[in-house]
Design goal:
The chain is of the alpha+beta class. The chain is built from 8 helices and 14 strands. Strands 1, 2, 3, 4, 5, 6, 8 and 14 form an 8-stranded mixed β-sheet that branches. Strands 9-10-11-12-7-13 form a 6-stranded mixed β-sheet, sandwiched between helices. β3 (about 50-65) and β4 form a beta hairpin.
């Protein structure tokens, strides 16, 4: 087995591996490989010349303590089933870290595996049950631009830091989730749950909570430092660990699933 960076000619093999391992929707697969195919930042394990395992370390940036720094964000970490439990993905992770010389981040599918490989959880969210919540007046539904969403996101995550999102990252989120938004606040909805709920201030948080209740959303996930926490603290909640990093100095940095 050999581990190397990918080459442009590996496009079809990498696409096939992702499709088989993740049973991905063709539309998403086409979009991802048309927008996020960077062979110099894809690391592959080969057996007799064939790719048997790979990961995509997307070039990214994070913002923390008023500084923007380079990092990488892993997606599509995949191994064919017949080659699993042989240490191949662990070897790929080690090689990736050696080659990139920057913090490596991800949103884990199997958290204990990445902990074993030296990844630390950097942040968590509080998922509040919204049933029985105090009635709030719903705000006016708006359709924010990506720039407006990004402004809310940056302000809401500023205390601990954040993984930056470009326009493509926002579009992947908009395509994968339903959006509910009021002025200065938004929520991404999936399976009747607000999985990312952000607001710039208390007034916008109240307006969005009213809208979530109106739409019969069952729960919402918020940051500890968010204006939602004060409004929801009497509600039942669970703690949800979020993204991970190889660098302990990123503690507090908000890392969620993104592409």
């Amino acid at each position: 087995m050999t581990i190397t960076r990918a080459e442009a000619s590996d496009f079809s093999q990498l696409k096939e591996l992702w499709s088989i391992v993740f049973s991905e929707e063709p539309e998403f697969l086409e979009k991802f490989f048309s927008l996020r195919f960077f062979p110099e930042n894809i690391f592959v394990a080969r057996e007799q010349g064939k790719i048997i395992s790979a990961l995509h370390a997307l070039p990214s940036f994070y913002q923390q303590n008023n500084r923007i720094q380079r990092c990488a964000y892993i997606v599509g970490a995949a191994t064919y089933i017949e080659f699993r439990k042989q240490g191949i993905m662990s070897a790929l992770l080690t090689y990736t870290k050696q080659q990139l010389k920057c913090p490596i981040t991800l949103f884990p599918a199997i958290r204990p595996f990445y902990e074993t490989n030296g990844y630390l959880t950097t942040s968590e969210m509080l998922c509040f049950n919204l049933q029985g919540l105090k009635k709030y007046e719903p705000g006016t539904l708006v359709n924010p631009t990506k720039e407006e969403l990004n402004s809310i996101y940056l302000e809401a995550t500023r205390p601990g830091g954040n993984l930056l999102r470009d326009n493509f990252a926002w579009q992947f989120l908009l395509d994968g989730y339903s959006l509910l938004a009021v002025k200065d606040a938004y929520a991404f909805i999936k399976d009747n749950k607000a999985v990312e709920t952000m607001a710039k201030n208390k007034d916008s948080a109240i307006a969005l909570l009213g809208l979530l209740e109106k739409e019969d959303i069952k729960s919402c996930s918020v940051l500890h430092e968010s204006p939602f926490t004060e409004l929801l603290i009497t509600q039942p909640f669970e703690v949800l660990p979020m993204g991970m990093s190889t660098d302990a100095t990123m503690q507090g940095c908000y890392i969620a699933e993104q592409y």
